[in-house]
Amino acid sequence: MSKKIIIAIDGPAGSGKSTAAKNLARKLGFTYLDTGAMYRAITFLAIQNGIVDDVAAVIEMTKNVSLKLKYENGLTRVFVNNEEVTEQIRSFDVSSKVSEISTIPEVRMEMVKIQKRIGEEENLVAEGRDVTTVVFPDADVKFYITASIDERAKRRLRDFKNSNVDISFDEVKANLEKRDKIDSSREVSPLRKSEDAIEFDNTGLTPEEDLEYLYKKVKEILAIKKQLMLN
Ligand code: DC
Predict the structure, then answer these.
(1) Ligand 1 mean position, distance from CA 42 (Å)
(2) Any idea what DSSP says for residue 120?
(3) Taking the model in full, what pTM does it have?
């Protein structure tokens, strides 16, 4: 089996990296891997089982869970133990707890194992917080996508409104700031820009403009790599 092509994208919540990664995957004909959805699924299950504050129980649960992602028509469908939780994992409750669950090293180890396995089988556009640094350090192309906090809060607020969640701009912004802090200061695999990642600030840009920029960069870098391999 030939080595698969991996495009890895990290960045903070609301940076638009999920939309960008989905669009890029579609344009390249690659599989889209939403690693955040996996941490959200574990968090959802921990809340459902009433063990969200019991680290040992969460670790035990994670080792025994069956987690499946199916990407269909622009949506990552998520199944835990064969039950679909696609909508539930986007709730404000899950969003509020997921960063804490993601600090547990044993949970991360299990998730990274699954993610690496997927990367051995398919050409991927993978996005998350540690895909450029820990999961796919040898990715073919790496991006670090970001945007101003107000722009990110506005985007997340729009997502919540679209799902009929009644929440204020200030609440969303405070939640994002809290998550940014936990995600980038945790001991294991903190969110950081990998030295070899291309930084892209998309404040004020549309998803179409994001895609145009990313696609052009990917094409350029893959062409250079191919050329180097031929020489
Ligand atoms: O991208 P998202 O908002 O769906 O991610 C939800 C949370 O999951 C995020 O706040 C931190 C965690 N996460 C992580 O720790 N590592 C990843 N690779 C992806 C997400």
Answers:
(1) 11
(2) H
(3) 0.93
Q: Name the burial class of residue 128, with classes exposed (0-12), middle (13-18) and buried (19+) by CB atoms within 10 angstroms of its CB.
A: buried
pLDDT at residue 47 in the model = 97
Give 34's strand partners: 127
* R_g over Cα of the chain: 17
Element (H, E) at 224: helix 207-230
Residue 216: the pLDDT is 98
Q: Does residue 163 sit within a domain?
A: yes
* 5 ligand 1 Cβ < 6 A: no
For 40-78, what is each residue's pLDDT tens digit? 999 999 999 999 999 999 999 999 999 999 888 777 899
Residues 38 and 53: their CA atoms lie apart, in Å, by: 18
Among 17, 35, 156, the mutation site with the greatest number of ligand 1 atoms within 8 A of its Cβ is 35
| Ligand 1, atom 5, residue with closest C-alpha | 36
Instruction: Say yes or no to pLDDT of 1 above 70.
Output: no
Q: Which residue segment(s) compose the domain that 58 sits in?
A: 6-230
At 76 the pLDDT is 84
Nearest atom within ligand 1 for CA of residue 14: 3
DSSP secondary structure code for residue 133 in this structure: I
Q: What is the 99 CA–ligand 1 centroid distance (Å)? A: 7
Q: What pLDDT sits at residue 92?
A: 86
CATH code for position 208: 3.40.50.300
Q: How far apart are CA 119 and CA 123, in angstroms?
A: 7
